[in-house]
Design goal:
Distance between the termini of chain A: 70 Å
CATH class of one domain in chain B: Mainly Beta
Distance between the termini of chain B: 47 Å
Number of helices of chain B: 2
Order of helices and strands of chain A: HEEHHHHHHHHHHH
Low-confidence stretches of chain B: 1-22
Bound molecules: copper (II) ion
Strand content of chain B: over 45%
Number of strands of chain A: 2
Structural class of chain A: mainly alpha
Oligomer: heterodimer
Order of helices and strands of chain B: HEEEHEEEEEEEEEEEEEEEEEEEE
Strand order of the largest sheet of chain B: 11-17-16-13-14
CATH superfamily of one domain in chain B: Immunoglobulins
CATH architecture of one domain in chain B: Sandwich
CATH topology of one domain in chain B: Immunoglobulin-like
Number of strands of chain B: 23
C-alpha cells in the first residue's frame, strides 16, 4: 500500500512536470528573441539541449526570481525541500516508506552551495552556465536526479537564479572566486596517447580510489563518504552511462581538473600539462568496452577537417 | 493538504528573506587609549582520546595509536585554543601574517591548528604517498585537492571567515584545523594556555574561545581604556 502511494505520487510529480513544461511552452515572454533559428521558449526538435542557447544567461529580475520559485515549487521541492536543504519529501519518504526507492544520494543542500559539477577550481562556486547544464543533464548516476533539459530555457535560468538565493556564499565570497578553466577541443586519440595516459593515471594515483583498471575498487575506495556522510564509491569508468557529469572528453577533463566538491574526488589542477590531461582523458575513455580507437579517431579527424574546410570557405 | 501547501509557501518565502545580512568588513584605524584582554584557557574534565588507525601506507603513516582531542598541560592549561573577538567594526591594523601552510608530514597535518586571515593558503605534501587534502567550513567544501607525490604543492584561497576542518580522503583519520579570523584581535594559546590581546578600542565585545573538540565558547567582555580585562575561561 505504502509503495503504491509512493509510486502514485511519483507519477503525479511526473505528470505535473509535463504540465508545467507544456504550459510554459505557450507562455512566451518579452525576451523571446530568436537565436540561431530557435526561440528561447520552444522545445528543440530533440528532447532538449544541455548547453544554453544564450551562454551569458538572462537578466535576473524580481519577476524572474518569482518565476524561478514557481518552477522550483513545481519540480524541485519534492527532493530539494522547501528551504532548499535537500530534505524534501522524496528524500524523507524514501527513508520511512519506500526503502527500495530511496534516493542513493541526498538531494543537494542549496544552503551550503557546494556543487560537484563546476568549470571553476575546487572551493569556488559554479558559474550559472554550470548550474544550467547540471539541471539540464540531471545527475544520472544510480538515478540521483532526473534531467530537466525538456524545460524551456527561461524556466531553467529562472530556477538557477532562484536556487542561488538559498545561500549567502554568492555575495559573501564573490570577490574571492577563482576564474573558470577553459577547455579546448580534444585532440584525437592514438595508441601512444592511451599508453601515455595510463602512465599519467599511475603517476597521479587515480588507482588509489578508482582501482588499477578503473572499476572503482582501489585501496582507498572502502569507507569513502560524501559531505552528507553517506558512503560513496569512486566511479567505475567502464560504464559511461553512470556518470554524474558529462562523460565526454571535455567532461572528464573538467572532472579531474576541478574536482567534485562535496565528494572525495579531488582536483588535480596543478600537476598536469595540457598534453598529459588529454592523454589521461583518452585512457579513462579507453576503459569502456565499447571504445573503438580507430572509429573515434576517424570520426574526430573528419569533423576537424570539415570544420577547417568550412572556415576556409568563410574566409574567401 | 491545503495546510501543507501553505507551510511550503511560507517556508519558501521565509528562506528568501531570512538571508543573513552580509558581515561588515573590518576597518583599520588608529587606536588611542586601547585596552587589553588577557587570561588563561584551562580544562579540568576528562581528556577524551581519539583512535588513529592507519589502514594503508603504514610505512609512512605509522602504527595504530591514540591521541588526545585536547592538549592539556600543567594546571589544566589548554594548548592550541584560539581566542578572538567575534565582531568588531574597526580597530588596530592587521599585522604582517605569513601565508598559512598546511603540510602533510607522516600522514599528519602540520601544524594541526593554526590561525589565518582570509586569503591564500599553501598546501604541501612531504610524504611519498598520495594525500587528498579536503577542507570544509562546516559541511561546505573550502578546497579539495589531490597531492599525488612528494613535494606537490597547491595554493588555494580561504574565501570566508570561520573554522576550516581539514581531512584527507586517502587517509580518513587525518585531521587539521585553520581558524580564519575576522579581525586582528586574536591569539592561539601555547603550552601555558595564556593569551593576551592588546590595543582594543574600549567597548563591550563577545570573546570566542575555540578548541577543536570543545567547539566555540563565547564570553561577554568589557574593555576599558588603558586597562587589562581578565577573560580566563575554563572549558568543559
Ligand atoms: Cu593523507
Amino acid at each position: 500500500m505504502k509503495k503504491i502511494i509512493a509510486i502514485v505520487s511519483v507519477a503525479a510529480a511526473i505528470g505535473a512536470a509535463a504540465i508545467v513544461g507544456l504550459s510554459m511552452q505557450t507562455a512566451g515572454g518579452k525576451t523571446g528573441e530568436v537565436t540561431s533559428g530557435r526561440s528561447l521558449f520552444d522545445y528543440p526538435a530533440t528532447t532538449g539541449n544541455i548547453d544554453p542557447v544564450l551562454s551569458e544567461g538572462i537578466e535576473v529580475t524580481p519577476r524572474l526570481l518569482e518565476h524561478g520559485e514557481w518552477v522550483f515549487r513545481g519540480l524541485c521541492i519534492g527532493c530539494h525541500g522547501a528551504s532548499g536543504d535537500g530534505n524534501g519529501a522524496v528524500w524523507e519518504l524514501g527513508d520511512l516508506y519506500a526503502k527500495d526507492h530511496k534516493l542513493p544520494r541526498k538531494p543537494r543542500d542549496f544552503t551550503e552551495a557546494v556543487y560537484k559539477l563546476r568549470s571553476t577550481p575546487s572551493g569556488s562556486l559554479p558559474t550559472d552556465v554550470d548550474l544550467f547544464k547540471s539541471i539540464s543533464r540531471g545527475l544520472i548516476h544510480e538515478q540521483d536526479m532526473p534531467a530537466f533539459k525538456f524545460l524551456p530555457e527561461r524556466d531553467r535560468w529562472a530556477v538557477v537564479a532562484y536556487i542561488k538565493t538559498f545561500s549567502d556564499r554568492w555575495e559573501e565570497e564573490a570577490e574571492w572566486q577563482e576564474d573558470p578553466i577553459e577547455i579546448t577541443d580534444p585532440p584525437p586519440p592514438d595508441e601512444d596517447s592511451i599508453v601515455a595516459g595510463k602512465e599519467v593515471y599511475a603517476l597521479m594515483q587515480c588507482e588509489q580510489c578508482h582501482g588499477p583498471v578503473g572499476k572503482g575498487d582501489g585501496p582507498s575506495a572502502p569507507g569513502l563518504e560524501d559531505d552528507a556522510g553517506l558512503p560513496i564509491v569512486p566511479r567505475d569508468f567502464t560504464d559511461a552511462t553512470q556518470f554524474v557529469g558529462s562523460s565526454d572528453p571535455k567532461g572528464i577533463y573538467q572532472t579531474f581538473t576541478t574536482g567534485l566538491d562535496g565528494t572525495p574526488m579531488p582536483s588535480f589542477a596543478d600537476f598536469l600539462d595540457e598534453t598529459q590531461r588529454w592523454q589521461l582523458v583518452w585512457y579513462v575513455i579507453s576503459l569502456r568496452p565499447e571504445f573503438d580507437l580507430e572509429a573515434t579517431r576517424t570520426q574526430m579527424m573528419s569533423a576537424t577537417k570539415g570544420k577547417q574546410v568550412a572556415e576556409a570557405s568563410m574566409e574567401q | 493538504m491545503k495546510h501543507i501547501f501553505q507551510i511550503v509557501v511560507v517556508s519558501v518565502l521565509a528562506a528568501l528573506f531570512a538571508l543573513p545580512a552580509q558581515a561588515a568588513k573590518y576597518q583599520e584605524m588608529e587606536v588611542a587609549d586601547g585596552g587589553s584582554i588577557s587570561g588563561q584557557v584551562t580544562y579540568t574534565g576528562k581528556v577524551k582520546m581519539r583512535t588513529v588507525l592507519p589502514t594503508k601506507d603504514k610505512d609512512v603513516c605509522g602504527k595504530a595509536r591514540k591521541e588526545p582531542t585536547i592538549l592539556v598541560g600543567e594546571g589544566g592549561a589548554v594548548q592550541d585554543a584560539v581566542v578572538y573577538i567575534k565582531e568588531i567594526a574597526s580597530g588596530k591594523a592587521w599585522p604582517e601574517m605569513a601565508r598559512p601552510v598546511i603540510n602533510n608530514v607522516d600522514c599528519i597535518f602540520e601544524p594541526r591548528v593554526q590561525v589565518a586571515k582570509r586569503g591564500k593558503v599553501d598546501i604541501l605534501n612531504s610524504d611519498p604517498v598520495l594525500h587528498n587534502s579536503h577542507g570544509y567550513y562546516g559541511k561546505a567544501t573550502a578546497f579539495n585537492v589531490a597531492l599525488p607525490f612528494k613535494d606537490a604543492k597547491v595554493t588555494k584561497i580561504l574565501k570566508r571567515n570561520g573554522v576550516v576542518r581539514t581531512d584527507c580522503d586517502a587517509h580518513g583519520w587525518m585531521l587539521g584545523w585553520v581558524v580564519v579570523v575576522p579581525n586582528p584581535y586574536h591569539m592561539q594559546t601555547g603550552a601555558d594556555g595564556n593569551f593576551m590581546i592588546d590595543n582594543v578600542p574600549p567597548g563591550d565585545y563577545t570573546l570566542v574561545v575555540w578548541q577543536e573538540s570543545v567547539g566555540e565558547t563565547e564570553i561577554p567582555i568589557s574593555v576599558q581604556a588603558g586597562a587589562t580585562t581578565d577573560a580566563s575561561v575554563q572549558l568543559n
